[in-house]
Amino acid sequence: MTKTSLMLGTALSLGLALPAGAETLNLYTWADSISPDLIQKFEKDTGITVNVSSYTSNEDALTKLQSGASGYDLVTPSQHFVKIMIDQGLLEDIDAADMPAFSNLEDKWKHQWWDPKNDYSIPVAYGTAGFAVNRTLYKGPVDSWKVLFEPGADLKGKIGMMGAPDEVVSAAEIYLGVPFCTEDKAEMKKVYDLLKAQKPAVATYSSDNISNSLAGGEVAAHFWWDGEELKARTEGAPVEYAMPKEGLVGWLDSFVVPKGAEHVAAAKKFIDFMSTTENATEQANFYSHASPMKIDPAKAKYTPQNAPEIFPSVPVKFAQACSPAAQDLVTKVWTDLLQ
């Protein structure tokens, strides 16, 4: 959070008056996902004060918007949750296809199934969910989900999993050959049985502080995201991102504006600002995930040669928005697993 954001938060908490005409923008994003330098640049360029709050799962973001009157102006959910939010009437129609940001978006990300007319969303980053290992603690192969889901003795009690079911269940489905969003109880029982059998080998179910947990040796393997592992590796951590032959879970996060947001115009300014070639390049270099925008290759920090994590050599299957019946099965699997 920037200094000006902290000042604003203090003023609000003490009931103090803000300067006349002060404009704010309240972001609710994945933890540590937006470049602080770009936030400061946006504040300087526009005079708009930016407040940042964070989450670590799509489920948390959805719950916050479902509660109503969240107070947020921009959120960055993944593709299947964008679809759910649209279907539930939780987002503002911002005519995204008519925004300057849309013209800098790579064609392959336009008019996708989660927002066919691009009325509601502009993509900001994409990548994969998989798992990483600490190479000082685990010396074996990382070419299959079997390593994580059916671990050998060298990983028993040394595995970390996410604290929410979204990508974990999808990964288990990929490994087992179970269709995403199946409504078949027998198929989902296969997923449950796999995760239940894995559970004695799991030290923690948490989406927080994964870098410290894995690099520090608290666990030897952890379900993780590509770019987060990349940042840890390039900072010297002894970690490696797996390339399971069965494939990785794909995700694409987008800027969306919650229904009833107070600062829609400021939100759209921020989206356009973040989507220019210059700023999208800087954001990709900071976040260490692939950008869906047209970025400057000459200034891009990551390439297939130095960042295999974000240029995967195995299939990538993007998570889908499930029917209520299918989602209920996912929830039941997870609830029963953690009991």
TrEMBL record:
Q: Where is the signal peptide?
A: 1-22
Q: Which UniProt keywords apply?
A: Periplasm, Signal, Transport
Claim: Signal is one of the keywords in the record:
yes
Molecular function GO labels = polyamine binding
Question: Where can this protein be found?
Answer: Periplasm
Q: Which InterPro entries match?
A: SBP, Sperm_putr-bd
| Primary location group | periplasm
Positions annotated to bind spermidine: Q320
What Gene Ontology terms describe where this protein resides (cellular component)? Answer: periplasmic space
* One GO biological process term: polyamine transport
Pfam families for this protein: SBP_bac_8
Gene3D superfamilies, per the entry? Periplasmic binding protein-like II
Family stated for the protein in its record: Belongs to the bacterial solute-binding protein PotD/PotF family.
Q: What does this protein do?
A: Required for the activity of the bacterial periplasmic transport system of putrescine.
**What is the protein name given in its UniProt record?**
Putrescine-binding periplasmic protein
